[in-house]
Amino acid sequence: MRPNLYLLFLITLLSFTACKKSDIEHENSFEGSFKAWKNFRESSSNSYRYVVTGGSWTGYSWQTTLTVIRGVVTRRDFRYNAFNDILRPAGGWDAESREKILAAMKVTAAQFAERSGRELEDVLEWSEEEGDLGKNMETPASSLMTLDEVYDKAKNDWLKKRENAKVTFETNNNGLISSCGYAKDGCQDDCFNGITISSIDALLVGID
């Protein structure tokens, strides 16, 4: 190929690449955060604990704590921080707070267990470890996701450009994802599709 033709081809190729539109929102912020994640993953030996929060306008809020050791989820802890507008006491759910919930719902403990298939205390707060991870099925708890999987879902789902939707991406955990998702325009209640992470902490693990 003659030099001037090669130069023309190169300019055309570069122009096409520069004009190619991204199919995700907040691409630069995502790439910066993904780089921060890779640094964190290496420095922590891919071992960390992160907390996912959620809630509903109907008077419920909750949090899920996921423990990841060397890239594998090994524990999931869940608790409601508010249940039917009853707030969790600082010391944890106790008999008095459970009675308030039952009174507000106008049911007995036996009726609640019959309807839900579980005792109230087992609904309000629970833990799973290796061997029983995922046993709690009907729950708003976060999925058993590593942060690698969170970033993958962010790129391939939550941040995709959509018509008539607002896409959010925040990195308030020292550059790591703190909020990522979208809400459709005109939606009134519980509209957010994505993830909210309140904290991410590295864990010290032994060296094999």
UniProtKB/TrEMBL annotation:
Keywords: Signal. Residues 1-20 form the signal peptide. This is Uncharacterized protein. It comes from the Bacteria.
